[in-house]
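Case study.
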Amino acid sequence: MSHALIAGTLRSADRRLPSWPSTLHPMTAESTAADTSKSPDQRRARWMALAQAGDRRTYEKLLAESVALIRAVAWRKGVAHDHLDDVVQETLITIHRVRHTFDPGRSYDAWVTAIASRRAIDALRGHGRRVRRELHDDFALDSHPDLHDASAATESLQRARQLHAAIAELPPGQREAIEQLGLRERSLSEVAELTGRKSGALKVNLHRAIKALRGRFHGDS
Amino acid sequence: MSATSSNKTLIDRLGTELVPVRRLLSPGQRTLGWLLVVAAIAVVLLMLYGVHPMLHRWEGAPDLAWAALGAVITAITAAWAAFALGIPGRHARWAWVPVPGMLLWIGASGLGCLRHWIAPHTSIANLHQASDCLIFIISFSIPLSALMILLLRRACPLRPVLTAVMVGLASASASASLLEICHAYDAAATDLLTHVVAVGVVVALNAAMGGRLLSSY
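After joint prediction, the assembly is written out as follows.
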């Protein structure tokens, strides 16, 4: 993909999508002078080379600047607005895991675009699977219509609120586990990567959270 | 937690986890490394079987030499394509790179089917001998594929199945090249069919299993 196309997409995406601040940390005069002589893509490639060498501030700045590009790629792939940040986070994690594969002599934007495209496709597939399950639920609802739809909807809303309130009262570890694994349907490895916690600890927290919620709603011990 | 602040939190956390990394070697360098292993096996086979029988066969039927050259070119280009596809941002068009070598390999091998018109006294493999070729190609392809998949696990193949197909093609063509050293028969229809089946089995196995092994990204 040409850089002009990416730049055009970014410009159009910036009009449609909320953008991320361009910098997290102030740049030094030396790096600013060096960077202004290069294209944004070349500058980001240089930043990634510094990140590969362990420069944390440049790395954070680079990731923050990459968010807009990732969102634009995901948007172009057809990811819904509500799920754009899921793709952003998955892509950032992948960038972190595979940063050693970047060759500073090549385009950083092309490298990130490829990873973001892949994560966007994964998100769309995951969403497709959920939709198929939901279609099955619709079929069940059509087959067994509720005579008290309005009251059932209110009851459902109340139960959802109660559930959210109950989740909010859980200890932080359990709350994080149920939100990430249960509600957002992320895999154990993804959540472990995202939260920096071990899979075993996440499993234990999820189990305890489910037990606590079950106890609260059904009185099980 | 809003999406923007959760992004910032994640970036901060990734920043704290940052450690210097050793950059991945270029696809060309990794291809060279893998080919060195193939070359080492070739040296061992040449020491066991000698170079003269192979040269004698090629002298009698030059199309065999062209087929061997095609197999070697396919092995090199398919390996290069596999390692290139293991890097994000490299184009899927890399998968077309082995095609010219394959055409030479298949075209020259196909000439063997006309052998009884070109050189009627050449020794042709029977079904039993052809099955030996099948076993040879598959058994050499397994470790060569495993080595390449191991090397690719450190990369990031975003198209795992296509990459695995290239792995299978590289391993099968490298094995067919090695077979040429100790191959006492000419490329008759049975032999060509055996080679096609062997390459097909290796590529299919890689696409099925290698694709899964490489799909962790």
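Observations recorded in class. The interface with chain A takes residues 3-4, 6-8, 10-24, 26, 86-90, 154-156, 158, 217 of chain B (CB under 8 Å). Chain B has a mean pLDDT of 84. We will return to this complex in the next lecture.
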